[in-house]
Amino acid sequence: MPLSTTSLIKFPHLxxxxxxxxxxxxxxxxxxxxxxxxxxxxxxxxxxxxxxxxKELRQxxxxxxxxxxxxxxxxxxxxxxxxxxxxEGLLITPMVWRDLKNFSSNSVCLVxxxxxxxxxxxxxxxxxxxQKVL
Length: 134
Ligand code: TYD
Known about the structure:
By secondary structure, the chain is mainly beta. It contains 2 helices and 12 strands, in the order βββαβββββββββα. The chain has one domain (3-133): Sandwich (Jelly Rolls).
């Protein structure tokens, strides 16, 4: 899918003197049925995550805490998102290669996914991915 199908989704954010509350309602805010949630944390300084594309899976990444960069390419265009806002989610569509890097200390990346884990849904070889999309 082209990069134009990726997007930032804004979630309702309630702020008062007691702090912030963000809520995500599957049926109202997520363009797929959530089958899995996972999170990345304690990523050591300088380590990278991602380094793959999915064949069918759609997912939404949220910087629940801290910040990190998401570099995306569809083989044609590249885009970089700096995620640092817990009330925003980045929708990544199928056949978009992602590299996650520059995790701040104490950052947490929450992921909501449209499918349960399936290694067969991954392209982990960049050249193989490029051959599929070009
Ligand atoms: P991977 O998707 O490559 O992680 P990241 O994109 O964050 O760098 O997965 C890393 C390992 O964890 C890999 O061996 C598969 C396993 N894994 C699961 O077993 N279940 C899951 O839901 C996820 C996301 C990964």
